[in-house]
Amino acid sequence: MVVPKERSGRDRRVFVMLAFVALLANWTASSLAAESSASPAAAALGSASRDVTKVLIDAYPATVRAGADNEHIVVNGRVLPLSDGKEWPTYQERLDHADLIDQLSQAYPAGCPAEVPSGGEIPQEPGRLRDEAFFKAMYGESAAVVQGTLVSVAWFGSTMHVTNVNGVAKHLVAVRDDLAQHPEWLKYLTNPGGSFFWRTIEGTKRLSGHSFGIAVDINTKYSDYWRWSKGGYKNRIPCELAAIFERHGFIWGAKWSHFDTMHFEYRPELLRG
């Protein structure tokens, strides 16, 4: 911008000010135009990415930090994308290829009463959508690595083996101590179904939460599982018992339409707020 030399000092200052205002107006208009030209999907994804990053950092402060941009996070030094950028045509494909946006796409209904989860084309089952790369980066890429992090937790006459990463073992001890105040629930807690076991989920190629040492199954005698059950949804576990698990960061498989009422999994990202 050139200021005419023949103008007085006052006139020159006014000229500069008006020119600056014009430049600012042009910049604002260009920015608004670019913003309006972005697709609604892209805008929504950007917002979701920021929200997911915050939730994951809040839930796992020792292992997760923000990435260099809004599209990535860093888990134990490993850079991971929040989205794979793909739109899977069916829920089953989305379940099989979940990314971190998917992982937090359904709200978990904490507390009681436990309503029957809805089914349909998109079932209600927050927590079944897992970004496997996230859990491998967090807890270990193999059975041997995860085994190196396991802690034995005494559990109503048995032992549970869970990871010490993110304080999971400590949180399970807190669950046990709270449950011990309720002898009326003892039958649900003795003879547990298990804890750490590196395996895929039955009928799939997806790793179970048990593979990472973050899940436990209580007594199968009083539990129900969608593959075993005939006649639809069924649950015999007291919701108040499950609420104690939830208070310490564990979600409950009875709140999935593909129900697994014995199953509790440390997923604090779904219990924030």
- Please tell me the CATH architecture of the domain at 141-270 by its name: 2-Layer Sandwich
- As for the CATH topology of the domain at 141-270, it is Muramoyl-pentapeptide Carboxypeptidase, domain 2
Q: For the largest beta sheet, what order do the strands appear in spatially? A: 6-7-9-8
Q: What is the N-to-C succession of helices and strands?
A: HHEEEHHHHEEHHEEHEE
Report on the structure:
With about 270 residues, the protein is α+β, with helices and mostly antiparallel strands. It has a domain at about 140-270: Muramoyl-pentapeptide Carboxypeptidase, domain 2. The protein contains nine helices and nine strands. The protein has helices spanning about 10-35, 40-60, 90-95, 100-105, 130-140, 145, 170-180, 185-190, 240-245, and strands spanning about 65, 70-75, 80, 150-155, 160-165, 190-195, 215-220, 250, 265. The strands form three sheets. It has a four-stranded antiparallel β-sheet with strand order 6-7-9-8. Helix 7 (about 170-180) packs antiparallel against helix 9. The longest helix has 29 residues, at about 10-35. It is globular, with a radius of gyration of 26 Å.
